[in-house]
Each structure stands twice: as C-alpha cells, then as structure tokens.
Amino acid sequence: MAEQRFKPRVVPIQPTSYAQQQACDRLDEELEHIHEPISNKVAYVKSQSQTRNHTCHWIGCNRQVPPALWGCRQHWYMLPKHLRDKIWATYEIGQEATMSPSDEYLEVADEVQRWIQEHS
Ligand SMILES: [Zn+2]
Q1: Domain range for 108
Q2: What pTM does this model have?
C-alpha cells in the first residue's frame, strides 16, 4: 500500500496585497457594525423617553427612568466608572425595545447588582 504523503503547497506570501487589504477593511467595517461606537449609543440613549413603566436598577430605587437608561442620574453616577464603561460596552441600541439584551450585557448587569449589594 502506497504511503500517502502530505505535500505542502507553497503559496507566496504577500502581506500587503490589495486583496488582503480589502479583507482587512471589510473586517473593520463588520467589527464597527457589531461594536457600535459608544458615542452613538450615548446619543441614542439620551434621546430616549419614558415609553413604559421602568424603574432605576439601583436596589430600592423606584424612580422612573426611560427604558434605554440603566438607572436614574444619581445612582448611575454612584456606580464606579469601570462598571459604567462595561454597561456602555455591552449595551446594544434598541435592546430595551426588543427586550433582548445580550448575554454579555446580562452578565454585566448581574455584576452591577452584586457591586450595589456590597456597597450599600
Ligand atoms: Zn435610582
């Protein structure tokens, strides 16, 4: 039985080829689409109003806030910046309308709730 040997095909590497550059550009565009710049999210959230009953997520706070907002101004700024940044990073525009936040967002939301319990 003849031994099958793997013969590597030699492909010249052209790291700066036009096709590769195009592929990189497309990937950048896709990533930008998935990860909406935070400034766009901020502008969207600030433009949102009280479309339904929705209270601040701070434990024990009953203030009504637009569903696009995590919480009232007072409690939002009581969260450490790294947690606020995480909320912004994982928030997706419109998730409060479709009621379909990502798993990542829900994980951050849980982390925030734990932080509040430990610090209040
Ligand atoms: Zn509040």
Answers
A1: 37-119
A2: 0.71
